[in-house]
Specification:
The complex is a heterodimer of chains A (116) and B (112). Chain A has 116 residues and is mostly beta strands. Chain A contains no helices and 11 strands. In chain A, the strands form 2 sheets. In chain A, strands 2, 4, 5, 6, 9, 10 and 11 form a 7-stranded mixed beta sheet that branches. In chain A, strand 7 and strand 8 form a beta hairpin. Chain B is an all-beta fold. Helices cover 0% and strands 54% of the residues of chain B. Chain B has no helices and 11 strands. In chain B, the strands form 2 sheets. In chain B, strands 2, 4, 5, 9, 10 and 11 form a 6-stranded mixed beta sheet that branches. A 5-stranded antiparallel beta sheet of chain B has the order 1-3-8-7-6, with no helix packed on it. Chain B is globular. Chain B starts with a strand and ends with a strand. Classes of the chains: A mainly beta (116), B mainly beta (112). At the A-B interface, strand 4, strand 5, strand 6, strand 9 and strand 10 of A face strand 4, strand 5 and strand 10 of B.
Chain lengths: 116, 112
Amino acid sequence: DSGVTQTPKHLITATGQRVTLRCSPRSGDLSVYWYQQSLDQGLQFLIQYYNGEERAKGNILERFSAQQFPDLHSELNLSSLELGDSALYFCASSPFIGTASSYEQYFGPGTRLTVT
Amino acid sequence: GEDVEQSLFLSVREGDSSVINCTYTDSSSTYLYWYKQEPGAGLQLLTYIFSNMDMKQDQRLTVLLNKKDKHLSLRIADTQTGDSAIYFCAEKVPDSWGKFQFGAGTQVVVTP
């Protein structure tokens, strides 16, 4: 158990809908990362937050947005869903920024999103 | 190249050594990582190496870094059936706060 929790574990929804994925980082970790894992694209970095502020952005679609709240939990919002958005979405957390150990990421179990 | 590259599959006999190779993208990358993913689970950090190191050993794991060739390898000594998993190498993108590039993963199958 990494200490990172994600809810829900599974989500099935229809095209065009909007969903919210939630992540609680390990106690004390200030950074949260979101990743999308699919068979054809592999593991793609989406976005990173540090202590409530966006710090790094990857290939995140405009239909996707995220935020990190004052209690450090994070939410990933996916809207206007398409079939191709079906994937595993992982959240990871790390302590702080500055040294290699600060970037040690602890991954949650993931949310499996199926868009039908 | 633009992608972190790994071979996709490795079969190894129990008790032998496994070597998983990775080519990363940026010669100025400072932090390089190896992660393990078991079926149905998230990624688990195995080890990392600074760019100012050539080698790092951690119990059965040995990481070798060749900065000139941008080549990273992970050696698992005395491979066990529990080592069957997908192994990802990752680099922190230089000059970014926390953007990471992951390889496609190498599926390691350990046979008795």
